[in-house]
Amino acid sequence: MDLKTLQALPKVELHCHLDGSLSLKAIRQLAKMAQIPVPESDQALAQLTQVQEPIANLGEYLEKFDFVAPLLQTKAALKLAAFDVLEQAAAENVQYIEIRFAPAFSLDQGLSLGETIAAVIDGLKQGEAAFGIHSNLLVCGMRQLDNAANIAAFKAAVPYLHQGLGGVDFAGNEADFPPADLKPAIAYARTQGLPLTLHAGECHCAHNIYESIHLGATRIGHGTALYEQPDLAAYIKAHHACLELCLTSNLQTKAVTNIADYPYDLIRQNQLQACINTDNRTVSNTTLTKEYALFQKYFQTSAATFLQFNLDGIAAAFCAPALKAQLTRQFKAAYQALS
Ligand SMILES: O=c1[nH]cnc2c1ncn2[C@@H]1O[C@H](CO)[C@@H](O)[C@H]1O
Ligand SMILES: [Zn+2]
Questions:
Q1: Which residues form the Adenosine deaminase domain (predicted)?
Q2: Which end of the chain is flanked by fewer CB atoms within 10 Å, N or C?
């Protein structure tokens, strides 16, 4: 399929960070609102916000988020940001998207955790109305913060569950903060009935995938290190966990050093549930369409398999059962029309 056909395919996306996915246009608007100077040329702005040269690891990748953090400190900014990402997603026929952000990173100017969450949900609702897309928010705890801070963020999320919020996640420095360190906050999320996805297996640490599922995650962000411990596939399968694949991001952070290591065949042969995602449209300089194109190029992924990835994503989504049923029907019909 050519890029235009791939772009038109209906898609779901479960793993997309708000702060890593702002269009350059939105970054300019937000910078103006915050009275923060930005370079005039898009090329120079891209250099500040996108991974361009080869980097060594996830730590260097995460440095690229520093530039936008000061731009996301007001309700208006958070709302605009959420709207902007929905606009980009809708333009490539994403019909359902979960967008995640860390409330702890938007407190510099006095917003409360709850206010940051409400503002992002506001922007998502506005985007849904404008673009006919469905969405939910995920609140990220950050691994490098202490459990009290992460529990506070999750506590602020609770009132929004099923009201624009789908669940919670842990992002950040996985190499130094394994799942065991997050146990109290994860336990809190579980007692509150917050659905849980966890970044895991992004730092050559396959054991973190096992540990995360063991602690209650029904979805795994990345899961790339599966290739280093293939026997984990049976455990992932037995627990019906869904892998949120982010190929470009994984190549950039050296979660895989080359495409041959990527566990695509393992996922397909074991019929693991998995879906395709951008992780960060801006930081990774990608789109969901480009991700589909990469899967097609490297793995000869067919339309039938793209449909299966989407059906897996829908099944694993943190949204209402009625919406899942509706999306499932729509996706099957749309992909059938292709063949
Ligand atoms: O692939 C990733 N792995 C781990 N952490 C990430 C990744 N992408 C983004 N973030 C982190 O999540 C925060 C909230 O969106 C971002 O600020 C970034 O620090
Ligand atoms: Zn991520």
A1: 10-329
A2: C
